[in-house]
Amino acid sequence: MAAQFSRQLVGKHIEGVWHTGIVVYGKEYYFGGGISYDAPGQTPFGRPTKTMDLGFTEIPEDIFLEFLREVNPRFTQETYHVFKHNCNNFTDECAQFLMGQGIPHEIVDLPNQFLNTPLGKMVGPMMQQAQDSLKVRSHSLFDDGGHQNPLQTTGTIPQGSNFGGNQPNMNDMNSLINQFASGMGGVGSGPGSGGQSTASSNYSSSSSSKGAIAIKNLQQLQKLIKETPALAIDFWSPTCPPCIRIKPVFESLAQSNDECRDCAMAFKITSIPQFYFYLRGDQFREFKGAREDQLMSTLIELGELVMTKSSTHKNLNYKQFRPMNLAPQGFTSMGNIDKMREFVQTFANSDDVKKEVKSTENLQKWLVGFKLENMPREAIDELISMIEIAEDKFKIALIDLLRLLMMYEHTSAHILNRHWNTFEVTVFGYIQCMDIRDADAKVMQNYHMICLKMLGNIYQTEAGKEFLQGDDASSALIDFCTYSFSSINPKVVFAAAIVLFNHILCYKREKSLLYNHLEKAILKINEAFADPTLVDFEAVYGLLLCECRIVYQNNDICKMIVEKQEEIFKKNHQVLELRVKNPKVKESIDDVFQMLFD
Q1: Which InterPro entries has this protein been placed in (predicted)?
Q2: Tell me, which fold does domain 218-307 have in CATH?
């Protein structure tokens, strides 16, 4: 009827005024004065006019029923609104939960389309008043207390049986439209035509764990973080399928994220499920997604840390190490910027560049203004091409320019994402082929140092920090710093210590992923302390603070040192203290020892 007369009544063609339900697990669920169910196609709304296959769900039936129980208070006779909160909204929400996408938007939006017509604006208020007079007989899924009524899982569900008594029909929009069309356009009313959405399940059973601390406000959560030795927080929603899938393995789920919106805002929650883990008041780890293996491994690790010495590190009194200072160190001095530009300009105009580099046009244009914060990507690409062929002082000048460019988000992101492989060759590979113990190789030492300063500035931007979370980049950088600790030049050693300090400080993933590389690094530091030629205070102090950062709250490293290296570790540090007689060195060694030894 809507298709036939809609244009003359409301001024536009409407294919149908749909009532919808969703068929899954052999039953049709719909919103009818509450959440109801019947055998598919045997609801009080008659046989469906149209069916639509939504796809396949992996959500178990008992989890779906738990979801319905969670949303039941929002789908009752009292909450029903013929235009704003109707059967189609319920079907859409179920489809979102089961499939990750809802029913077609035009079905959900149909009431709005009607209300925006002249007829809709006139009869809308009357239709809302009239909805209470319509009745259906259905199987109410939940009784008035929110408890699930017994469901028949086999055989035919008898139509007309009603566990909750007769209830008003809150869904039959067709009947409402027909009723008013009859009075105004001379069209007789008739039974509703139902449209169905269908989903299938490949999985029928699951278990669900109970027991939750429902966080009601941000103050409660902050108090728990402060007072609880180990805490796991899950930001979730009952309408999120991955959240429901992970629920059985999480022991302390809150009942509803909606009950604590200030918590979600404070933690800047952008997706769910999202997990935060705290160890003695400090954020220990976070991750997004329903990853059961990561959840379990993190909980196990958190439990172990509560019982280990490394879990007490936060509460120790340090003399030199500042674990709460989370700002990475930078090499941000501008130096002689005019001389740098002159070197770059001279090399760009050299015969070698003209022969080997395809073009320097964009770089040459940029050099006129030389605005570091506004270097075009094309100019960066040409600069990298020049670095690949440069030698000696020109190579140093070009890398020094990169050091400054690393301090800006857009240039740092482009350099790292597009040209990291150049670093692997011209920095890591090139320097590791050289003898860094050669005291006469001054140019090489200067190049080595400026490369480390450039790498250290990667942590000045969020793009840089994010890039170095990657396994390959992270491993390459740690190994390069470890190699650099053997340099004859104490300034190189100091720069390498700062870079590794920054990396550990800014690394947000599981520290266990770095274990093999950090083990080599701390053993190399210990080896350097045994070197009688290492007497430079700056280099020693940098290595000690880097060592503190490696050890801090790193149970695996602490365990390795105590079980395998304790004797030699203590000996080398004690010898170092006697060799470099400086109170800051002594206090830094005390800081390391109190984290490791009783």
Answers
A1: ARM-like, PPPDE_dom, PPPDE_sf, PUL_dom, Thioredoxin-like_sf, Thioredoxin_domain
A2: Glutaredoxin (3.40.30)
What's the pLDDT at 12? 56
What is the set of active-site residues? 19, 87
Q: Over 50: is that where the pLDDT of 415 sits? A: yes
CATH fold for the domain made of 406-596: Leucine-rich Repeat Variant (1.25.10)
Give me the amino acid identity at 585.
V
- How far apart, in whole angstroms, are the C-alpha atoms of residue 111 and residue 92? 14
Which residue shows structure tokens 């409407």? 14
**Which residue has 């429902």 as its token pair?**
214
Tokens 């779906």 sit at which residue?
A: 64
Q: What are the tens digits of pLDDT across the range 460-494?
A: 999 999 999 999 999 999 999 999 999 999 999 99
Would you kindly state where each structural domain of the chain is located, as residue ranges?
Answer: 2-201, 218-307, 406-596
Spatial CA neighbour of 291 closest among 268, 267, 271, 269: 271
Six token digits for residue 512? 């266990």
- The C-alpha torsion from 108 through 112 and 114 to 117, rounded to 10°, is -160
Give the number of other Cβ atoms within 10 Å of residue 340's Cβ. 19
Residue 23: pLDDT above 50? yes
Six-digit token pair at 26? 């052999």
Tally of residues, the chain: 598
As a whole number of angstroms, the distance between CA 173 and CA 86 comes to 9
Strand runs labelled E in 228-273: 230-235
* 2-201: CATH topology: endopeptidase fold (from Nostoc punctiforme) (3.90.1720)
Region class of 581: left (phi > 0), else alpha (psi between -120 and 50), else beta: beta
State yes or no: pLDDT of 184 exceeds 80. no
The pairing of beta strand 19-24 with beta strand 194-201: parallel
Cβ burial of 224 (10 Å; 0-12, 13-18, 19+) is middle
Rounded to 10°, the helix 515-529/490-506 angle is: 150
Q: Are 471 and 507 in contact (CB under 8 A)?
A: no
